[in-house]
Amino acid sequence: MNEVVRRVVTGHDRDGKAIVISDGPAPSVHTSELRPGHRSTDIWRTGNTPARIDFAAAEPTLGPRRQLPPANGTVVRISQIPPDSESVGHIDRETAKKVFASMGNESASTFAAGGRHPMMHRTESIDYAIVLEGEIFLVLDDSETLLRAGDVVVQHGTNHAWSNRSDRPCRMAFILIDGAYEPELKKKLEAP
Questions:
Q1: 89 burial level (CB within 10 Å; 0-12, 13-18, 19+)
Q2: Are strands 18-25 and 144-148 parallel, antiparallel or unpaired?
Q3: 39-46 and 28-31: which strand pairing?
Q4: Phi and psi at residue 95, to the nearest 5°
Q5: d(CA 35, CA 147)
Q6: Up-side HSE of residue 9: CA atoms within 13 Å toward CB?
Q7: What HEC string does 21-35 produce?
Q8: Which of 45, 49, 160, 166 is the most exposed place for a label (fewest CB within 10 A)?
């Protein structure tokens, strides 16, 4: 599995002709010594809807790591998720918070004593998760679903984790869209 993600970005020259602006490795790659083998590459971010289309798009993925899209924005990312046996066996509640903090979102961690998976988390977003290679379990509060290459999950801000119980990495594409919980659901999620 090639860890480097090639990214081709198109745009327009000053005459309005379609051109390739850049072609090479995506520049924003996140790893953490707290989660060996996990690699997350941000492909693109938008900061509003409708997204601005201009002549030569500025690089939107550099700067501090952010797990979530900005308000009214999106994130496209490719993640390589190693087998759980190699990457999450040592993770306790405090370490889980540190892992999410390194992604710019400490408050996403929902792992608690006796929890289903150390990487349980919730984000206020709609996420499209596409399995590109390998297999992985989607772990929810009371259930789990095995996913294989070609399967797609539409995640509606639910508490979840990705559990790779195989002996090889799983590669996934994620498209995150800024969301907002309906007020009644938000109250339920904030209740102790």
A1: exposed
A2: unpaired
A3: antiparallel
A4: -65, -40
A5: 22
A6: 20
A7: EEEEECCEEEECCCC
A8: 49
Does residue 136 contact residue 162 with C-beta atoms inside 8 Å? yes
CB 88 within 8 A of CB 99: no
| pLDDT given for residue 17 in this prediction | 92
Backbone angles phi, psi at 45, to 5 degrees: -135, 145
- Peptide bond preceding 50: is omega within 30 degrees of 0, i.e. cis? yes
Amino acid identity, position 177: I
Residue-range domain boundaries for the chain: 28-190
What confidence tier does 1 reach under pLDDT thresholds 50, 70, 90? low
* Structure-block tokens of residue 72: 């009214």
Q: CA-CA distance, 44 to 152, in Å (whole number)?
A: 20
User: Distance between CA 117 and CA 159 in Å, rounded?
Assistant: 11
For 75, phi then psi, to 5°, come to -140, 135
pTM, full prediction:
0.87
CATH level 2 (architecture), domain 28-190: Sandwich (2.60)
Residues 115 and 96: their CA atoms lie apart, in Å, by 12
Q: How many residues are recorded in the chain?
A: 192
Structure tokens at 107: 């408050």
Amino acid at 164: N
User: pLDDT (tens digit, 9 = 90+) per residue, 77-107?
Assistant: 999 999 999 888 778 888 888 878 777 777 7
